[in-house]
Amino acid sequence: MSALEPTALIADDEPLLRESLERMLEVAWPGLRIVARARNGREAVEQFEQRRPDVCFLDVHMPGLSGVEAASRIGRRAHLVFVTAYDQYAVQAFAQGVLDYLVKPVEPARLADTVARLQERLRAAEPASNTEALLRELAAQLKPGVARQAPLRWIRASVGTSVRLIAVDDVDFLKSEDKYTVVAWRDETGQPREAVIRTTLKELAPQLDPNQFAQVHRSYVVNLRAIAQVTRNLNETADIRLKARAEVLPVSRTYLHVFRQM
Amino acid sequence: MNPAATPLDASRTPSSPLPWSRVRFTLIASIVLGALLSLPMETATYIVVIRAVVVGLAAMLVFSAIERWPRRDPRWIPRWVLQLIGIVVVVPLAALVAYWMTTGGHPNFQEEEKRVVGYMMLTFMGVFFGPWIALGALLRQREAFARTQALAFDLERSELERKAVDARLRLLQAQVAPHFLFNTLANVQALVDAGSPQASDVLKSLIAYLRAAVPRLNEPATTLGQELELVRAYLEVMRMRMPDRLTYALQIDPAARHVECPPMTLLTLVENAVRHGIDPGEEGGHIDVEVSLQSGRCHVRVVDTGVGLQATGSGLGTGLSTLRERLALAFRGDAHLRLTEREPHGVVAELDFPAREAVP
């Protein structure tokens, strides 16, 4: 890292913001040379490997590889500054950690602070802070769908020759068939249909909303809203009749508690 | 278990084969009737009461047995009639058994004329009162069943109302995501700083988008024309933000402009295409919006060539699920939303709903 003529990389998928940051840096840090510009995380890592800049400005939200993921590949080989638009989770995480970050739209005063900090570190030839663990945690948190474990709302299934997204509300029940699961659902016109998906019932069941779906048998998970009536049998089992289907589903002894005295 | 989501057990069979309340009632009724019966008799009261209890319990057992068996309702006769017939048939037999038990196995009907009279009276009482008591029990059961069903309907209705409120709330929250707003403003600032003449156009689009998006929250319905202006403004803003990744085309049947449409319907589909199709891909893609009228129904197609649906799509969905709920409420189930994957990649979202002209 040469302290004489520091170099930088700017990564942002929005070209206007890339150019804007570049212009602001010209004012805030005239000695800084922008040697690389990237449109996504993958390009950022590639450009970094080629040009080895001292500082990387990384937009957090980028297609493909995110800014945080790119940062963990660059690691301690450069000083990292994250750039993000209003994003509660990201900003909170950055504020807690030792990471430098800028919020879009970038304010000149804030940028000046960041620049001063970076210049100080470069002058002292301080190594970039060790943020590996923090970055890994952040990357996991920011990955869509992983951080917020919302229940599944759509099931992707082949119907005939096309792939459809079936809303879980339209599903009557799910039946396990070996490595597959049969999805019994109703189409837009209310007609009962069936589709097969590759996911096993065991994998699928935990992703469903427990208020809406209940396992009633080793191989059956039923949408509670699709049930017309539950008839108890004498031998501690029960039969489920559905509103829009002729099938009668079994409730095995183990799962009978689901329907016990409401 | 969430009781609101669980349909009540609608079968009329009581959960236990012989509920204690039923046994208790039978015992009380038999004891009272037995005591009354014993008044004109010479036999000790307790003997008569025991006989009456035996008859009563037998009648109750038959009543309960026919309640469960045959398991399916017989077609040629209502179950309750069978139950009453069962009682009438079993009472004389049970009375015989009762006498046999209380006389040590030797009722001696031939010799004891009074015993025959007593037997006749017991049988008569059983045949007379048994069916009435049984009818009372049936009536009570039916009432209880009606009550459970009314409760189930109530639950379902309140569930629907709750859903409507939820959907509205989620819509309010989802409105104008701050991330979108600040990112767009950062772009506008960049344009202004650079002295670009484009700045004014972008601001215009942003203002059109905000004006359209903000006051709509309280309106139950807008027109497709208004929706389309909103979509156009949104797409224009997004195209400015990612000029190398997004292209789009709108194809609108002019007749559809006055059709009524719940607010944010079209925008949700288009936003979804951008957010889950175009934005996550390095290459971006193209979005086609087509609106047409056909035999009284409005057809909307939003096609994107983006990355397509990811696996079981956990990220995708909240916006679309909310839209589905709102459409179901607005059109009472007469609106259909269908999502299909497009070859080689991308998503086709198709929506059709009854075309109602908005009242100007």
Estimated structural class of chain B: alpha+beta
How large is the share of residues in beta strands of chain A? 25-35%
Quantity of strands of chain A, as a count: 15
Strand content of chain B: 5-15%
Estimated radius of gyration of chain A:
27 Å
The parts of chain A where pLDDT drops under 50 for at least 5 residues are: none
**Unreliable sequence segments of chain B:** 1-12
Span of the ends, CA to CA of chain B: 48 Å
Strand order of the largest sheet of chain B: 2-4-5-7-6
The major beta sheet of chain B can be summarized as: 5 strands, mixed
Q: Describe the sheet with the most strands of chain A.
A: 5 strands, parallel
If you had to describe this structure to a student in words, what would you say it looks like?
The complex is a heterodimer of chains A (262) and B (360). With 262 residues, chain A is α/β, with parallel strands linked by helices. Chain A is 28% helix and 31% strand. Chain A contains 7 helices and 15 strands. Chain A has a 5-stranded parallel sheet, sandwiched between helices. The model of chain A has no long low-confidence stretch (mean pLDDT 85). With 360 residues, chain B is an alpha+beta fold. Chain B has 9 helices and 7 strands; from the N terminus they run H-H-H-H-H-H-E-H-E-E-H-E-E-H-E-E. In chain B, the strands form 2 sheets. Chain B has a 5-stranded mixed sheet, with helices on one face. In chain B, helix 1 (20-38) runs antiparallel to helix 2 (45-68) and helix 3 crosses helix 4. At the A-B interface, helix 1, strand 6, strand 7 and strand 13 of A face helix 5, helix 9 and strand 6 of B. Strand 7 of chain A pairs antiparallel with strand 6 of chain B, so a sheet runs across the interface.
